[in-house]
Amino acid sequence: MDTIGVYDLEIRGRIGKDYWEREKVQPILVTFRVQTSTFKSGQLDNVTDSIHYAKIAKKIVKFVETQNLESLDSLAEHICYLCLTYDIQKAYGVFVTVKQPRTLLSAKLVKIDMYRCRTDLEGMQERCKEMIETTGFDIVDLSLFDDKKIETYFPDKLTALEQSIKDSGELYHEDFVTVNDLQINVLLGVNLWERYSKQSINVDITIHMDKSKTKNQKIHRDSSENVQQEDIFIPSRDLRRLVERVSRVCDTGFLYETKAMYVVDQPGFLNTAFKVETKKTPHELLVELKKIESDMGRDFNAQRFGPRVIDLDILFYDSLVLESEDLVIPHPRCHERHFQLQPVIDMNPYVLHNKLTTTVDTLSKKLVTIDGVPNDVVQVMPLSNSEISGKLVIVPVGENKKETIAMGIVNTTPDSFSDGGMLDDSETAADYAVKLFDQGAQIIDIGGQSTKPGAESVSISEEISRVAPVIANIRNRQNGNKYLISVDTFVAKVAREALDAGADIINDVSGGDADPEMFKLAAEKGCPIVIMHMRGTPKTMNSLTDYGSAGDMGSGKGDVVLGIRFELAKKVRAALNAGIPRFNIILDPGIGFAKTHEQNFEILRRLSELTGEPLYSVNSKSTINFRSPKLSPNLGSLTGSTEMSSQYHEKLAASLVGYPVLIGCSRKRFIGLATGKENPKDRVYGTAATVTSAIQGNAAIVRIHDVESLVDVIKVSDSIYKPNVQEK
């Protein structure tokens, strides 16, 4: 593809977020290279068949001198738009570089490299329209040029547009922001004499900014819910409707219950936020959201801020600032609402409110510390699959606002380690499950395959025959009760049959590793899923307890808790990428699975660290609870010291903050080794101690065999460690 360009065009203009940056004109250097075909003009020696670079340069100079944009990337995109629309039939793509010398005190310059092509024009026009018109230029009617093409021959039988994109290389996918010759004074060197005085070093920094055809939006969802009702809509339905109407839902926040604002005499609300990728413009997206609201029964003539079955708002649209009669972006009231800010913080606390030039995390803290608005949102989790059972159970799981949930165990296997062969038919197993519910269990976990160390696997059909009839029989015994049923399996086909029979939750001990279809199923069904940490299989896991052998420096360096965090984070990232909402994920550190007895106790001791903030160094503020400067006895063997390196950085594929945690220690062998009880059924008191420890570590769910004996332990432990539970 031919290019026509102008290099380092020096213009004087104002740019910057702060007033003092825009007080005086600054030198700005602009380079543009327009992709076009010079074949015809060269063959006929006719300049009018080419692109007039001098006129484009004049247009750019006028725009830069009169605009008042706040960032280089925004300025570069506006220049791209001007270049592409100067002669839309001849320009296929454009490379733009904008440099700002001495914008940083200690750096030579800051620059941005950008590429845009015809396929980007629609989205660019939405973002650039306001400033283009303000500076006196006309907006091009793109509909007149949709089918305009130049008949030009290219090798590889590519079209002109395809060739221009091919020639753009990496810049088609990413914008590059570069800081040149950043001068830093540092103490650097191995020897003491080298570190006696600071040395001056120059650093070049390049930041790759993802530039996709699709644009990211944060969409807030809330609905007026009376928690006693059974016919409310659950967020997974919203997700599927969004998937149908836009390109992709790529992340969600957690789910929150809040009191009504403005009109307070109404039931509370359930709130979350979605991050979506779409090719739709903001106004097109708004139309689709209104269709979803209408389909779900929203009455648009009802009282403003009053009860509503659903309310979808666009909070952010990339870095766009838009004000029109029917749409304002960023949302005009999101900065004063915890229930809109918090689910966005869950996904990314550094999302920038481009009008206020402040991150959502800072806005939330400002609401509390400066404006005096308490963050009273209550994190909740939908535990039932209401699209199957017709009922929804919402359970608080956030810190200081939760009761610990008892999950009873029903094993329909002949070879389970403590109760194998006891429940060998569906009627007996269903009766036993109902008995556990009556004793105080809120969830029953039904398994048809033993996962004890060394256990042999069974066929899919055999596992289905063990669990599906039991679930169906339990549903037949409900008599109006809201029984919550979990299926303990790592096989997607078994989980599907169990869900169709009436199960609510998938409990996958492999954390999605054993069957690649499991996460897809959970996303499709919109059901909660327990993602457990395990290595290998039940036959091999006992040989995989070395957490110091991984080569990645972010994998834990021998510390079992950090190792689990590292591996669980990868599973969570895979689950989110598969389309599972964040609020449907429960984490389990996998006590007894690829862990030594000592490691099991270490996990219980440090359970609160499992879902803490990432660890950056020993000296930084972190939620990791250091009892001493060391993390674990294994760490010293890798670092050569009993102290952890202050330069250690924990690299997680996804944040684990906020996820509810399930703990399953019931009757396990490490308890027997500590108590001397060889018979698993004699380990009730030992299990009770682990239950109390788990509750102290903020576990949301404990999985137990002896429900009748342990529900009182749960209640008393809640009273000790979760006193706010009593405030009802």
TrEMBL record:
Similarity remark: In the N-terminal section; belongs to the DHNA family. In the C-terminal section; belongs to the DHPS family.
InterPro entries membership: DHP_synth-like, DHP_synth_dom, Dihydropteroate_synth-like_sf, FolB_dom, GTP-CH-I_C/QueF, Hppk, Hppk_sf, Pterin-binding_dom
Domain Pterin-binding residues, every copy: 404-715
Catalyzed chemical reaction(s): 6-hydroxymethyl-7,8-dihydropterin + ATP = (7,8-dihydropterin-6-yl)methyl diphosphate + AMP + H(+); (7,8-dihydropterin-6-yl)methyl diphosphate + 4-aminobenzoate = 7,8-dihydropteroate + diphosphate
SUPFAM superfamilies from the UniProt entry: 6-hydroxymethyl-7,8-dihydropterin pyrophosphokinase, HPPK, Dihydropteroate synthetase-like, Tetrahydrobiopterin biosynthesis enzymes-like
Cofactor entry: Mg(2+)
Protein name stated in the entry: Pterin-binding domain-containing protein
Native species: Smittium angustum
